[in-house]
Amino acid sequence: MFRAIADVLRQIGSAIATVVTLPFRALARLFGGASSTARGHRA
Q: What's this model's pTM, rounded to 2 decimal places?
């Protein structure tokens, strides 16, 4: 019983973590691409 509850909480926690980190990953990808392209244009 407790193991099932722990599994559900773990799944919910992982889902929340993915949802929270997705926007930051997108921003990092955008800024990372912008910085790499800026470096390429400068050189």
A: 0.54
